[in-house]
Amino acid sequence: MVISLSLAGVMALIVIVLVRTGSQRIWPGIACALFGFALASTGLAPGITRAIQTIAGRAQSL
Description:
Blueprint: H1 7-21, H2 26-40, H3 45-60
């Protein structure tokens, strides 16, 4: 059985673990999230999406 998780869900889980273990503080994490939202509305968003899809496709074929 194949289980697929969205990239956003995996990243959210990683952030939660980092904040709970103290490796990542909450305010810098919020700043990074806001930067991500701002970056998503720029012209770079399609290129970033393609790069992530390419990396995920290659990782899946391993």
